[in-house]
Amino acid sequence: MSTAAGHAEESGSDRPIRVLLADDHHLVRTGFRVILEIEDDIEVVGEAADGHRAVSMTRALRPDVVLMDVEMPDVDGLEATRRIRAEQDQAGPAVLILTTFDRDDYLFAALRAGASGFLLKNGTPEALIEAIRVVARGDGLLAPEITRRVIATFARPGGPSTGGTDPQAALRDLTPREREVLVLVAGGASNAEIATALHLGEATVKSHVSRVLAKLELRDRVQAVVFAYEQGVVRPGG
Question: By its UniProt entry, which CDD domains does this protein fall under (predicted)?
Answer without folding.
Answer: LuxR_C_like, REC_NarL-like
